[in-house]
Specification:
The protein has 251 residues and is mainly alpha-helical. Helix content is 78%, strand content 0%.
Amino acid sequence: MSTKQGIKNPLNIIVVVAALGYFVDIYDLLLFGIVRTPSLNGLGITDPELVTEYGLKLMSYQMIGMLIGGLLWGIMGDKRGRVSVLFGSIIVYSLANIANAFVREIADTFSMSIIDTYTMLRFIAGLGLAGELGAGITLVNETMTKEHRGYGTMIVVAFGLLGAVFANILGHFIQWQTSYIIGGIMGLILLFLRLGVYESGMFKDLQTSKQSRGNLLLLFNNRKRFCYLSEQHCCWCAYMVYGGYSGSVLS
């Protein structure tokens, strides 16, 4: 069925790929909270106070990366298309997570401190992680009929959350470097699966219109919309920080 009419089958290629993408996204997002202590210990930082201090610093920079990435990928999604964001975001966070496994070698190569290198990589990973869910859910909603898009979104979110379970299992039973590499490889494999994903008809129609796209001022010219989006973003960030940090404490 054409995207102009809308897809009814909730198990279409776009939903499946978006669900797998969110799975990898959540895995990578929460993995740091799980391997925070083992990774810092493995890098020679064993003092509990320093582990806590550096762990919070790394988590903060990851969240800053997500904040900035959310804006950048959102603008790009409106200007260049949702599919381009799906490709770009997964390349960024997949390569960044593989690089996290070699943080010591990268630090030695560029004569940087290990913590500064680790912080930079978590920031870059955060940039990439921010684009996955928004682009995936938007593409699902724009390609499915209004009566069925709720089912597609439910499948994406429900399956994606299993990534947290997978991250918790791997994070406790294999080395932290291997956990990062697995996350990066899963992302690169998913990249090839996305070759069959097509742009939504709604976005194609928007390209031919004169309507403003990717304009950040639209977030601020309506007080009700701005307050709603700010509230949702703060709640999401709080959940991610609490979830990631509490996971590391329990580990």
